[in-house]
Task: structure prediction
Amino acid sequence: LGARVQIEGRVAVVTGVSELQGAPTTVTDLRGGAALVLAGLSAEGETRILDSGHINRGYETLDEKLRAIGANLWVTPD
Result:
């Protein structure tokens, strides 16, 4: 999505950018997946989130709730 992430031991240093760009991403855990959804919603262009099962198990009907407040997103079968 454009930000730089540098891992220093147990610390992640994130250097943001002025504008996130849509990109394909893969979910590896529940909270990280939620963060990718929010980042994708604020990014320019399309963001594809693969392996979204973690999100579906942890946040019931998240896509419907976000669409209800104006988000432009959809879920496709894996």
Observations:
- The chain has a mean pLDDT of 91.
- Residues 36 and 49 are 8 Å apart (CA to CA).
- The helical segments are 30-42, 53-58, 62-68.
- Strands lie at 4-8, 11-15, 24-26, 48-50.
